[in-house]
Design goal:
heterodimer; A: Jelly Rolls; 2 domains; 38% helix; B: 61 residues; 1 helix
Chain lengths: 252, 61
């Protein structure tokens, strides 16, 4: 797989042409492998390049004064983990790997050259950062309005849809090699609370999360528990998990 | 703004359960927290005291 194969795949708001994808591919100066649980960038660090996640999972996070972590974004293959760092230059959060990952490096100088000469291509890169912003808004909703079951269900439904867009979920299950502690830092819950929620979902035959894999027995119910409406992901029709459900009835 | 969309006091309480020696509180609304038994007892006492005061305030109008 090439570095940019999954970038903006199956999204309605920005479709990269083959020429644009090749152009971005040529801007890659380096590919690297990083181990699991490695910090790539620290909050406050000045950036000179952007990073594309080719394989594996990464997070953006902020630690409180006592070192407790809140994950503020979860990244899947095909995501730029820090494209906003191009105009911002200094990161306001840290970035780390959850699993072993493969990443591609695109220098900011190359981003500037590509966008200075092509306003439509610049709009597409901008749109990808707006997708991040849309997800941040949804995560605010999740943490502010949903109970423990809703938070976990929302994350699992969102991840199903995002992985569906890049061919890593068929809507009935997907690999998710993260821990319950990771889930707790994503949902703002303790591990014990996450464990209870997962047990209840398993007992009620909604889904199971075991051995680094999510198996979805009842997607509509999972989405209803999480009040998950995929509109904010701007997915093409046909992507698993992209169908909006009626929250009153749970029917699509 | 429509009042129905603004935050208002909840009329239904949250639900607490014990799990692995910890108290888990779910709801009302987006509340989802874990406490030690001691912290839960302190919170429970504080809630009862505040509820008593709130009821008196309501009766005074």
């Amino acid at each position: 797989m090439k570095s940019m194969d999954l970038f903006l795949r199956n999204r309605t708001i920005a479709k990269l042409s083959d020429a644009e994808r090749a152009m971005l591919e040529q801007a890659v100066t380096d590919e690297r492998h990083l181990p699991a649980r490695a910090t790539l960038l620290e909050r406050g660090q000045t950036l000179t390049h952007s990073t594309m996640l080719i394989a594996g999972f990464m997070i953006r996070y902020i630690d409180d004064l006592e070192g407790r972590r809140q994950v503020v974004a979860f990244h899947v293959p095909g995501d730029f983990v820090d494209l906003h760092g191009y105009p911002l230059k200094v990161l306001d959060h840290s970035i780390a790997t959850l699993t072993g990952v493969r990443i591609a490096i695109v220098p900011h100088g190359a981003v500037r050259r590509l966008t200075d000469n092509d306003a439509e291509f610049a709009r597409k890169l901008w749109a990808s950062t707006l997708l991040d912003a849309a997800m941040h808004r949804e995560w605010l909703f999740r943490l502010g309005r949903l109970d423990a079951g809703g938070r976990v269900a929302h994350f699992l439904a969102e991840t199903n849809a995002r992985l569906g867009a890049i061919g890593l979920s068929d809507g009935t299950g997907y690999d998710l090699p993260i821990t319950q502690t990771d889930l707790s830092e994503i949902t703002g819950l303790t591990s014990i609370h996450v464990n209870r929620v997962l047990r209840m979902m398993r007992e009620e035959r909604v889904c199971t999360f075991r051995s680094s894999r999510v198996e979805i027995a009842d997607l509509k119910r999972l989405e209803r528990i999480g009040q998950f409406d995929p509109t904010y992901l701007y997915l093409e029709a046909g992507v698993p998990g992209a169908q909006t459900i009626n929250m009153e009835t749970g029917h699509g | 703004m429509d009042d129905a969309h603004t935050p208002a006091p909840f009329e239904k309480g949250g639900r607490a359960v014990a799990e692995e020696g910890i108290v888990l509180l779910d709801g009302p609304d987006g509340i989802a927290i874990s406490m030690t038994a001691e912290a839960a007892e302190q919170t429970g006492s504080s809630l009862l005291e505040a509820a008593r005061e709130a009821r008196e305030q309501s009766m005074r109008g």
